[in-house]
Design a protein that fits this description.
The protein has 10 helices and 8 strands. It is α/β, with parallel strands linked by helices. It has one domain: Glycerol-3-phosphate (1)-acyltransferase (3-Layer(aba) Sandwich). The model has no long low-confidence stretch (mean pLDDT 88).
Length: 300
């Protein structure tokens, strides 16, 4: 039953309530199932439990998608889905404008590719329910050392990369999709101006984060999915989305190979660092032009 007719604030409150109930109810069996991996650390059993965990998480996303459908009447304009495969190891690079981006990607990609996983700051594990759910699903938690600490404690150099590599070894037997919002924060015209960005619709890309992911998981990732997200009516807030005020979302997917030229020591090899930055900058220039075309197409 569709509830488009309800007042916007009512839709928003009911929708966020459903998100909360769904998260609490499914995070409990998720965490309990994950404990068995530590009680019985046999490889075959761990792989079996991982599949159960992914099914629970997939159900969580599916229920969230149902939540979206009953409160939001959205026209989805999507291209490139036919290029994607379920059993592949992907790195997603995407522009970032709103927390709605994550919901839009989960809505579109659930069951089409391996479940999306994020590199998270270790402090986020303390978020109620979600933190332990991310832990149960083997989301990589990063501990990055600031430059000042590395200067006074040089023995810590490279430890964050080594730790993350060990955390990512469990992805070897199960296809995974790691997502990276390359700009490092959500786009806004003010941020674009403060950065003196060379792009109209994007912030300057941050190459270090992607290089860290490729350095940690280069042996496990096979392809890049370049995602472009556009909101033709203007960038919505999360509350706008919950209230059903978003009526159209455009997503474009392009699959790129991860070549040997994209892998190297970003933090210690200046030549590779410059080459990688040039590649990313060209990708971002193409994306900026694509956003302009998609916005013009929507207006017409």
């Amino acid at each position: 039953m569709m509830l488009y007719f309800l007042p916007d604030p009512v839709k928003g409150l009911l929708s966020i309530l459903l998100y909360a109930v769904n998260t609490i109810l499914l995070s409990i069996p998720l965490i309990l199932a994950a404990l068995f991996k530590f009680i019985i650390p046999i490889r075959g059993f761990v792989i079996l439990i991982d599949r159960v965990l992914i099914r629970i998480a997939t159900l969580w996303i599916q229920i969230n998608a149902w939540n979206t459908r009953i409160f939001c009447k959205i026209e989805w304009e999507i291209t490139g889905l036919e290029k994607l495969e379920k059993r592949e190891w992907y790195l997603i690079l995407s522009n970032h404008q709103s927390w709605v981006d994550i919901l839009a990607l989960q809505f579109t990609l659930n069951r089409r590719i391996p479940m999306l996983k994020f590199f998270l700051k270790k402090e986020l594990i303390w978020i109620p329910f979600l933190g332990l759910a991310w832990w149960a699903l083997d989301f990589p938690f990063m501990k990055r050392y600031p430059k000042k600490k590395l200067q006074t404690h040089p023995h810590l150099k490279g430890k964050d990369l080594e730790r993350t590599k060990r955390a990512c070894e469990k992805f070897k037997h199960t296809p995974v999709t790691v997502i990276n919002f390359v700009e490092g924060t959500r786009f806004s015209p003010d941020k674009n101006k403060r950065q003196n960005a060379e792009f109209t619709h994007l912030l300057n890309p941050k190459a270090g984060g992607i290089a860290f992911v490729l350095g940690s998981m280069g042996d496990y990732l096979h392809k890049i999915i370049d995602v472009t997200i556009v909101y033709p009516e203007g960038v919505p807030s999360f509350w706008d989305f919950l209230c059903g005020r978003v009526h159209k979302i455009t997503l474009s997917f392009d699959v790129l190979p991860i070549t040997s030229q994209l892998q190297g020591d970003y933090f210690n090899d200046p030549a590779y660092k410059q080459s990688f930055y040039n590649w990313l900058n060209r990708l971002w220039q193409t994306k900026d032009q694509k956003i302009a075309r998609l916005k013009e197409h929507s207006r017409n």
